[in-house]
């Protein structure tokens, strides 16, 4: 946990879930730059935040917590980010009702007087959200974005220009920039291109020919990623009634393939992304056999899955958290899977060879088998004793 000091006050902030080994902060210089600008840092005037304030993409709740006095609406795709916001409000003595938490799938406010955007890693997610939010802007709305200089590209500015109005940027401060867009009520916007849909090729076992839905921001929106492809080519062959978890489900291709391969299965799709879970449900509904059943949850990994309730977990864990490379998520996923599995239950993992997941799985499960490998990826199987 660290302390953010701004002209609005001082705030104790942490990411979620909290890990004492994690040295990453719950905010960065881009958040500080935006908060300073809102208070009139330098020779500027404070920004009027008396109307409806919407904070988009607030990663760990730093912006919402610092601006809680203005009763903002926070819109986030991240369940973990929303949980962090709740915890950070509480640890700073702020009433939870001061911030209205919405997901990227919820209906946004019909009027927005100030739109504050923490530029996301995914340009597609920004595109989708600006399409959804721009109609609520008016000529007097203030629109300010913020991000690291490495996150703000010409394409980012073109997106604000096309969907909001005339756009300019600030000077860089601590390797961060601000984006200023002036809403143009007369702007004619193109149709929102999201979600994207595509059909899988043959040669993928049960997944061959599957119709896939990808909402904006979900990994590999245009085509199947090569890691998932490798896992699909080596899915376990199982029969009979069983509970299967597609952990970190993304667009749901893996869990849906498991349902197609074993129509007697019940598949639980879990992801911390609202966009991903919506994609997984759409993919499953379009392809799964009538006898297969599924459930879909935005969640913190396996945290809400009862211990000893699952026969099979399928996992392609992420190894990035925003711009940071970390195995924290994978470690928590593996531990959660072990708790949720019944004795004899199996965890199947695909990952880059260099990540060395076999070492951690062997330590956690006492065993780990290499099911398949190629020069880049490995599929691993661990069995709960």
Q: Biggest sheet, open or closed, and with what strands and sense? A: 7 strands, mixed
Indicate the low-confidence ranges by residue numbers: 320-325
Helix/strand structural class:
alpha/beta
* Rg (CA only): 22 Å
Mean of residue pLDDT? 95
Distance from N terminus to C terminus (CA atoms, Å) equals 37 Å
Task: Please identify the oligomeric state.
Answer: single chain
Net shape: globular
Order of helices and strands: EEHEHEHEEHEHEEEEHEHEHEEEEHEHEE
Number of helices: 10
Care to count the β-strands? Answer: 20
Biggest sheet, spatial arrangement of strands:
5-4-3-6-7-9-8
Q: What percentage of amino acids are in beta strands? A: 25-35%
Helix content: 25-40%
Q: What is this structure's SSE topology?
A:
Elements (H helix, E strand, L loop, with lengths): L1 E5 L2 E5 L15 H10 L14 E4 L5 H5 L6 E4 L2 H13 L8 E4 L10 E5 L4 H11 L8 E7 L5 H10 L3 E3 L6 E6 L14 E4 L11 E4 L11 H7 L10 E5 L5 H9 L4 E6 L2 H14 L5 E6 L11 E6 L4 E2 L2 E2 L2 H13 E12 L4 H9 L3 E5 L3 E7 L2
Parallel strand pairs: 3-4, 3-6, 4-5, 6-7, 12-13, 12-15, 13-14, 15-18
Antiparallel strand pairs: 1-2, 7-9, 8-9, 10-11, 16-17, 18-20, 19-20
Helix pairs in contact: 4-5, 7-8, 9-10
């Amino acid at each position: 946990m660290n302390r953010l000091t701004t002209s609005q006050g001082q705030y104790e902030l942490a990411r979620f879930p909290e890990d004492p080994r994690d040295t990453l902060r719950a905010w960065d210089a881009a958040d500080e730059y935006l908060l300073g600008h809102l208070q009139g840092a330098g020779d500027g005037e404070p920004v009027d935040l008396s109307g409806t304030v919407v904070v988009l993409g607030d990663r760990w709740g730093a912006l919402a917590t610092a601006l809680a006095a203005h009763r903002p609406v926070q819109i986030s795709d991240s369940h973990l980010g929303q949980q962090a916001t709740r915890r950070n409000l509480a640890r700073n003595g702020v009433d939870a009702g001061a911030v209205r938490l919405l997901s990227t799938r919820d209906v946004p406010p019909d009027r927005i007087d100030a739109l504050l955007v923490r530029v996301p890693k995914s340009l597609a997610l920004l595109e989708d959200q600006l399409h959804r939010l721009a109609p609520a802007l008016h000529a007097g709305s203030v629109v300010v974005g913020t991000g690291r200089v490495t996150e703000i590209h010409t394409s980012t500015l073109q997106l604000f220009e096309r969907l909001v109005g005339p756009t300019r940027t600030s000077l860089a401060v601590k390797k961060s920039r601000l984006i200023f867009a002036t809403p143009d009520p007369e702007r004619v916007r193109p149709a929102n291109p999201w979600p994207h849909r595509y059909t899988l090729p043959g040669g993928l076992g049960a997944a061959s020919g599957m119709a896939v839905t990808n909402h904006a921001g979900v990994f590999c929106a245009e085509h199947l990623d090569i890691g998932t492809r490798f896992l699909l080519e080596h899915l376990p062959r199982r029969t009979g009634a069983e509970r299967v978890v597609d952990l970190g489900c993304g667009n749901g291709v893996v869990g849906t393939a498991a349902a197609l391969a074993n129509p007697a299965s019940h598949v639980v799709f879990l992801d911390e992304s609202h966009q991903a879970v919506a994609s997984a449900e759409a993919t499953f509904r379009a392809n799964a056999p009538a006898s297969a059943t599924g459930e879909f949850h935005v969640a913190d990994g396996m945290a809400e899955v009862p211990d000893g309730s699952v026969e099979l977990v399928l996992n392609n864990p992420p190894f990035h958290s925003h711009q940071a490379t970390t195995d924290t998520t994978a470690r928590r996923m593996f531990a959660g899977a072990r708790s949720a599995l019944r004795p004899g239950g199996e965890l199947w993992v695909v990952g880059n060879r260099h990540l060395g997941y076999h070492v951690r799985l062997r330590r956690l499960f006492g065993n780990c088998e290499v099911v398949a490998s190629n020069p880049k990826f490995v599929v691993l199987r661990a069995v709960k004793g």
